[in-house]
Amino acid sequence: MRILLVEDDAEVARFVRRGLQEAGHTVEHAANGRDGLFLAASEQFDMLVLDRMLPGGVDGVRLVETLRAQGNRTPVLFLSALSAVDERVKGLKAGGDDYLVKPFAFAELVARVEALARRPTVDAPATRLKIADLEMDLLSRTVTRGGKRIEIQPREFRLLEHLMRHAGQVVTRTMLLEKVWDYHFDPQTNVIDVHVSRLRQKVDRGFDKPLIHTVRNAGYMIRAEP
């Protein structure tokens, strides 16, 4: 396999690189997050092994989040001295596939690398979302319902995309604040209600069956069924 190792500790990097090469892998090394992100985004690798805490203005979590947002599905194994459960969860939620706490036995590192390599290849991410006669093209950034083009603003597009990706599920206001507005606090405004109202006017007005529903005291849901 061709592996990208992103590790700022020179001694750890030499140790891991040498061991992976002895195990038969080709290893490229980046010493900071910025260079690691550039290599991961511009070249083809079979796996990424990266530290959580990285210099260069891009830490491991941000690096993986950026790659996943770009559609890069390369398996990622985090190496980190941060052993707390919430830190491991943070790395996995960012898009990491496995998490190994330092210090570690090299035999375990190789075993985890090989285990990730055996996982089935992930299908390419969907480029179209569809609920009943409502369709969203993620590449052209267009929305249609019943074959008719719906003109929506960028924020409305993100809102609708999040609802469609969670079709049939209640999406809370807190979730929308974090995923659509990038707020990690409650701004104490009715911005969500206003945008949902506008989106509902564009998506449901003129159609017999509404798709966007308010779930009292919970949030919102998009579904085809009444």
Automatic annotation (TrEMBL):
<dbReference type="InterPro" id="IPR001867">
    <property type="entry name" value="OmpR/PhoB-type_DNA-bd"/>
</dbReference>
<dbReference type="InterPro" id="IPR039420">
    <property type="entry name" value="WalR-like"/>
</dbReference>
<dbReference type="InterPro" id="IPR036388">
    <property type="entry name" value="WH-like_DNA-bd_sf"/>
</dbReference>
<feature type="modified residue" description="4-aspartylphosphate">
    <location>
        <position position="51"/>
    </location>
</feature>
<feature type="domain" description="OmpR/PhoB-type">
    <location>
        <begin position="126"/>
        <end position="224"/>
    </location>
</feature>
<dbReference type="InterPro" id="IPR011006">
    <property type="entry name" value="CheY-like_superfamily"/>
</dbReference>
<feature type="domain" description="Response regulatory">
    <location>
        <begin position="2"/>
        <end position="117"/>
    </location>
</feature>
<dbReference type="InterPro" id="IPR001789">
    <property type="entry name" value="Sig_transdc_resp-reg_receiver"/>
</dbReference>
<protein>
    <submittedName>
        <fullName>Response regulator transcription factor</fullName>
    </submittedName>
</protein>
<feature type="DNA-binding region" description="OmpR/PhoB-type">
    <location>
        <begin position="126"/>
        <end position="224"/>
    </location>
</feature>
<keyword id="KW-0597">Phosphoprotein</keyword>
<dbReference type="Pfam" id="PF00072">
    <property type="entry name" value="Response_reg"/>
</dbReference>
<dbReference type="Pfam" id="PF00486">
    <property type="entry name" value="Trans_reg_C"/>
</dbReference>
<keyword id="KW-0238">DNA-binding</keyword>
